[in-house]
Amino acid sequence: DVPKVPDSRADSDGARRGSLCDRHCAAIYNVQGDLGDLGCHLHRPRVPPAMSTPSCYQQHSEEVCESCVVKTTLTAENAVEANKLSNNYKFGFKKWKSHVTERPWEDRSEIVKELYSDLNVIRGSGGSTLRCGNVLYLLLFGWWLSLLYVLVAAVMFVTVIGAPYGRLCWDLAGYFLWPFGKAIQKAEVPKSHQVCEAGAGESSALLGGPTPRRWRPQCWAGTGHWHRAGTAVWLCLGYPVLALAHGLVCVTAWLLIVLIPVAKLSARATSRVLLLPPERVLIRRLKMTEVPLEGEVILCCYRAANPYYYKYAVDGINVFAVNLLPLVLVTLVLGYADSPNHLTGSAIKFTLALLSIMPLSYYIGMAIASISAQSNFAVGAVVNATFGSITELTFYITALIKGSREGNRCYAEVVKSALTGTLVGCVLFVPGLCMVIGGIRHQEQRFNSRSAGVSSALLFLSVGGVFAPTLFSKVYGKLVCGECHNVTQNPLGHYLCHNCHFDLMDNNGTLYYSHVQPLVYTVSILLPAAYLIGLFFTLKTHTHIYDIHISDCHMPGHHHSAVVHWSRWRALVILLLSTLCMSACADLATEHISPILTNSTISQYFIGVTVLAMVPELPEIVNGIQFALQNNLSLSIEIGNCIAVQVCMLQIPILVLFTIFYPTNFTLVFSDLHVYASMFSVVLMNYIFMDGKCDYFQGTVLVMVYFILLAVYFFAPSPSGC
What we know:
mainly alpha, 15 strands, 59% helix, elongated
């Protein structure tokens, strides 16, 4: 699996091995924390030779370079991150891209540092402030925010005692109309009137001339009672209106993500600027060449939009997951408080419930990764096996319960469609999409074919076991048709029949209860046993298949003590709360899916295969894409394979076990379309992954085949009973 290195016949084997190691040693810091290139990855920091650490290099040069062909060395900032990286390559563990600990500030790029910086830093050269994002701010917020300040200034002038605050609002009206290239400074209070007199002739190094009168600190003579009265008027009439407006701007800009600098601007203005005495607020217009201001700079903004804010995280949680969390609360309140559907219909509630599953899946994944990284192997394995499929199982079980209560077989068919859709999507769409996106940046991507072969073998076994009862029923079942018409008007002629299916309940269900049901139970026992054997094989006896080595060397400046985002107890609480909310959202989704299934013109097959199957897997898809962009296609493939294996070897046996204690309409007999689509997908996937390398063309083939299957499901008639 190691890329070939051009060699010359004059070179010796040792020289070729050394050149290969030297070629890959520099790749260790291409991506901080996660590296997917197979081969020899020594821990050689990307620093000048004078600053390198020869002890670390000498320590691992012989040890790793001698195993250059079989080792993949990963580096991490601390032991917790190293444990998380190691878990990513373990079969059966959830693959997680985001960090579970705080990254050292000095290791972050300048782009990321700018995302977390406060808006109080003056640059040496601000450049032009006429940008698309700034113009967007003017159109969305600037004009009406400035007008509101003018109106508040007029009200404060009318009160007379609030005139200083009126002047402040007048100045801030011009600032918030176009705040870019300007700074708000906290000025010192003058000790006597001589400071004010001397201030009339002072000049500003920023502006290159006398300070305009309206930018100077004002010596307000009205102290004592009148000053306190003016502040009271401001806090009663002016501040609440402006705080409400800035709150609206802050929330709107935060939800748009790229305008988070505007949200920071509004939040800082509300909490700092508007609560200062008016004589201590100084507004300056910065020029291209300026010197640092004397005194504290409260606000200084140069641009309103930054497209890199999709990387922004709050306490380790991505900003998208943070913004979608209120959607969960809205869904739960609206779903249970408006049961008769007076405010909204079932379609809206179903959509909200389905969308709420996405952030909850993210929180569950983050919690599982945090607990596994901070615990030993046994605890991590139990947590991954218990909660790894909780998202899908929660929805499936609630749907089966509702179908059993209503006596509607359609819910069981939708669950089967969702199971098949998850299997097909994770085998074709997830790796195919990762190949396409990763292939745009990397011409050819390589992955560990041996580890992929283990998942492929388990997939073959699981698909054969899952569909064995279906094939058995096709062979021994009795074909029953609902409507038959004689085409030739001859009793011995041809008949055209509709709604045909294999009846397993003939002769009081003798075939089903005596043959099919025992086969289902046998398969449901063997599949989890095979899954456990696969875990023991890959994690205990044949760990060398994954060729992972965690380096214990660190770059200068790295922190060896881990500062985790979520402790184990906090992660456990979040995991349980997210699971509880997931159950509630799944209950709402199944409660309001019935009108969609009955009134929709789209096949129930298509709804189950697409929406119900792939929406809960969106966080996993995003993780796979991020791994592929970093040339770590092995983890992208493992994400899809592990989900597909868990569907067949864990989720389906659990559903069968559930039907024993709570009888439902779920039987392990699938339609022909599900059988053919699943088997063809697994065969195609194994053919593509045979050589251990791929490009964007092979990924395009997988994606196109997936969309062809979606078209088949779209035009397929609804299953019987729906």
